[in-house]
Amino acid sequence: MRELGEFALIDRINSGRLQTPGVLLGPGDDAALVAAPDGRFVVTTDMLVQDRHFRLDWSSPQDIGRKAIAQNAADVVAMGAVPSAFVVALGCPADTPLNVIDGLADGMWTEAARAGASIAGGDLVRSRDIVISVTAFGDLRGRAAITRAGARVGDTVAVAGRLGWSAAGLAILTADAESDDFAEALAAHRVPQPPYAAVLNALSGTAVAETPDSTVADADGNTTHQRPSSTGASDPGDIGLNALTDVSDGLLADLGHIATSSEVAIDLDSAALRDKALDRIAARMDADATQWILTGGEDHAFVGTWSAGYPLPAGWVPIGRVSAGHGVTVDGAARPGSAGWESFGGVDSAVAGEPR
Amino acid sequence: MRELGEFALIDRINSGRLQTPGVLLGPGDDAALVAAPDGRFVVTTDMLVQDRHFRLDWSSPQDIGRKAIAQNAADVVAMGAVPSAFVVALGCPADTPLNVIDGLADGMWTEAARAGASIAGGDLVRSRDIVISVTAFGDLRGRAAITRAGARVGDTVAVAGRLGWSAAGLAILTADAESDDFAEALAAHRVPQPPYAAVLNALSGTAVAETPDSTVADADGNTTHQRPSSTGASDPGDIGLNALTDVSDGLLADLGHIATSSEVAIDLDSAALRDKALDRIAARMDADATQWILTGGEDHAFVGTWSAGYPLPAGWVPIGRVSAGHGVTVDGAARPGSAGWESFGGVDSAVAGEPR
């Protein structure tokens, strides 16, 4: 890598990549240019650090690249937005093998394509550890953003995607208990598979015919100058999806964010959360599948609260209910112990425990 | 920092910050929401690594925060866009003192305000070294992007901002020759001051009255559906600014990018580049001011090529000419040696030489 130099390496990474049409100007200039037909764009950023968020002896570079994009794309979709582009800043030691760089880039492009977008640009620098910083963009297609603050008393809590499988894979890797029997859990940890389509297909019929800053006339012919609606507070959409997030810190922690932001209580039904395949793995690992499901992060399932009168779309499973009050309970009882991932202090579920 | 925990620390960093109106939804949800009235947005990302791009014994946390934002804002402005928002991913060791975090955040907010924007969101993770990854956004206000590919034979090459001062400051720090006499150069290295206004004021009269995907009629009444123009290739704007970049890798290297992209040659006039104040510093440091000016990066001056018939706006100084051919020369001669900064291989002007 040292021999190739920064510019040649960037050329190598970008060689043969096809930008999606929303990327109007890709890598090679001072900045990229991305379409924002909605007149607004959703943006989120996540940093992944070697031996803290991933390990090269546990995951292939391709897997790590996919995971880095997936967790950012999940945040975009969790706002109700369609992924439009990514940018990536990558820090690497000078002696990083070229196949690691190539693998990271290939994985990123693979997952970006799965999310329907491409990588519009980036930065490449030298660092002691591999550091991957992804920023992801999305377009709301004229809809209101779906925040964590929109849950209403009486809503059904439902999930799309798997819970606890990434935590199971992590437990297997930590115990050095890899085997073919555990292939599914290991894959789930290495490459989360956020079910983007479960959200986006449900929303795709709900675009509001609105252009940014458009002038509209009311019934009396008076015109008003409209700004794009700024948050999801006002418009739950046709499908009754009032609040939405992705499960990145753990189900209890992420629903805790919804409960706090929405000023409601959430109760989960443990029976609805049971996963017999996960129970079998937990039994062999002498672990508790319920703990994985409730506190394991990184699966990037989507969890939302839905108005009671609306049918749940394909891919969504009811797991609880929103009521008046505060906090998150399971079968009516508070759950002791860990409530998920924090980067500093508190319970630490880092891949490598307490690194260095 | 460890005691406080991730979420409390993020609250602390964001406490009391005022978002600019273009940030429709700030920190606290899965993603932020930023206005893009143009229907497109410019995006760039840069990663800064401790002891490679900055040193805590050479710069204050405030200075480092300002520099991180400034170099990204400069890339946005170098496309002809108005900064609209930033997001920041920050990696820190668990034992990082709180005043370092606070200083970094304060510096970032200070420079974001200077660029006319705010910090819409971010991420905070643990890492071995401090790593700052900034992504910056800008709005083109209906204008075409000004790329590196638009230079035309006969254009005047002109610069806005200082050249070589950051390199002088680096040389002083490297030689451990700090003194009050060198305060200006030291400040220039610690906090680059890209002259955003020199570009943006010049452009502010040139907005094209165009809405994204608008339908327009030609003289015969035929309508066509227009996409936003995607690059700067088609529209130099009223002011005759055909190509633009910021000086981040060194003047020769950055003009080399323009020459290559535009398929032209560029010749610089060494007399126009002379800076007597820098000459005085160079004499005392037994160094070559011309080398600093031609190859020193990080000043984030703006350099552009202007149609010959147009007067240069305030703040711009002519330094050379575009002609047919290729490559960059000074007084008609090729310049031997270093052509600027590369992250891997080649000449390495890292703040700390070859780190670890």
UniProtKB/TrEMBL annotation, chains A, B:
Catalyzes the ATP-dependent phosphorylation of thiamine-monophosphate (TMP) to form thiamine-pyrophosphate (TPP), the active form of vitamin B1. Residues 28-138 form the PurM-like N-terminal domain. Pathway: Cofactor biosynthesis; thiamine diphosphate biosynthesis; thiamine diphosphate from thiamine phosphate: step 1/1. Mg(2+) 1 binds at T45, D46, D123. Its EC number is 2.7.4.16. Belongs to the thiamine-monophosphate kinase family. InterPro entries: PurM-like_N (IPR016188), ThiL-like (IPR006283). Keywords: ATP-binding, Kinase, Magnesium, Metal-binding, Nucleotide-binding, Thiamine biosynthesis, Transferase. The keyword Kinase applies. It comes from the Bacteria. HAMAP family: TMP_kinase (MF_02128). Mg(2+) 2 binds at D46, D75. It comes from Nocardia iowensis. Substrate binds at H53, E298, W341. Mg(2+) 5 binds at D249. ATP binds at G122, D123, R148, S248. This is Thiamine-monophosphate kinase. CDD domains: ThiL. NCBIfam families: thiL. Reaction mechanism of ThiL seems to utilize a direct, inline transfer of the gamma-phosphate of ATP to TMP rather than a phosphorylated enzyme intermediate. Mg(2+) 3 binds at D30, D75, D246. It catalyses: thiamine phosphate + ATP = thiamine diphosphate + ADP.
